[in-house]
Every structure is written in structure tokens, then in C-alpha cells.
Amino acid sequence: MIERVLSVTFAFLLLLGSTSAVAQEQFITVASTTSTEESGLFGYLLPSFTKQTGIEDRAGILPRPKRRIPIWLGGFSEAAFDRAAMIGDGFLFSGRTQTEAIQIKARITAKLRELGRDADAFGFESIQQYSRGDNQWPGDIAAWRQAGGSHISVVTMGANLTTVDGHIEAIKRWRDVYNSVR
Fold it and tell me: Mean pLDDT: which of 4-13, 46-55, 83-92 is highest?
């Protein structure tokens, strides 16, 4: 999957860098209004792009952010877990049971330590499903806290809510349960 993403990215970058003059120096200028460069993503993608195409990159961000903006990743494969441990600042668990998220968190934490990274500085967010019901939420919240998760959120899609106000009220209800769990 990453090779496919890189190929599409490289093709896009190649298209951006193409020129009509035959004898011109080949380079691309990649600009971003986010901290993509600071995240390490350019450092990860652009050397491979240059190697594959021979086209030099001249990437930069203007204006520069005042601080490094964290890049959180997610995914469903060992490659995604490894990639997050190598270049990410956090991992988002979506579409996983609480038990699976806790097990994967342990694997990513082990990989972070293996890479010499500070596992305590790496974030882990569990995205809870509102539709599981308020009888499940306290146990899920407590288990995530016990596992050392740094963030938790709730998604109300798929809960048969038909209005914006319904979603807002659902989030408030979940928050009240969250606040009651110690």
C-alpha cells in the first residue's frame, strides 16, 4: 500500500515539476502551509522521489510554524504500526475493539522502544463508537485509561442520529459518562 501511495505521490510531484524547456535544470518546488517538512514526511518521501526520478526537490514551508506540529497516523496493518513508530508522533485507533487497540498499543510501544524513541512522548487515541451504548462506555474508557492511552474521542456516526442537535446531545451524553469514570 505504501508503495502505491509513494508512486501516486511521485507521479504527482513529477507532474508538478515538469517543464516545457528541454535543457532546463530539473527540480520541483514543494510548498506547504502545514508543518509537513517539520513532521519528517518530506524527509521520508522526497529522497525516494529524487532517487527514482533524478529530479531534485526544493521543499519549504512559508511562513514557518512557531512550533513543530505533531503528525499522527493510523492504519490497520503491521506496516502502518511500524511506520507510525518510525516517523509519527501518535497513533489513532479507529474501527478497532478496545481490546485490539490495547494490544496494538503495546506492539507500537515496543517498536518505539526498539527504535530508541520516547514511548511516553508518543500519543495514542482511541476513537470510541457511540453506538456501543452507555452500558459499554465506562468499561471502555476505564480500560483505555488503564492501558495508558493519552487521548480518547467518540464518533456518533452510525448511531441513527438524524440531526446536528442529536449528534451534539449524544456527544454531551458521552462526555458526562467520560467525566464520571475515574
Answer: 83-92
Q: What is the mean pLDDT of residues 62-67?
A: 81
Second CATH level (architecture) for the domain 72-180: 3-Layer(aba) Sandwich (3.40)
What is each CA distance from 27 to 1, 56, 144, in whole angstroms? 27, 5, 47
Chain position carrying cell 510501544: 109
92: helix, coil or strand? strand
Give the other-Cβ count within 10 Å of 140's Cβ. 22
The CB-based long-range contact list for 152-158 (8 Å cut-off, 24+ gap) reads 152/125, 152/126, 152/127, 152/128, 152/178, 153/125, 153/126, 153/127, 153/128, 154/127, 154/128, 154/129, 154/130, 155/94, 155/127, 155/128, 155/129, 155/130, 156/130, 158/129, 158/130, 158/131
pLDDT band at 67 (very low <50, low <70, confident <90, very high): confident
CA dihedral 163, 166, 172, 173 (to 10 degrees): -150
Q: How far apart are CA 103 and CA 101, in angstroms?
A: 5
Domain boundaries, the chain: 2-61, 72-180
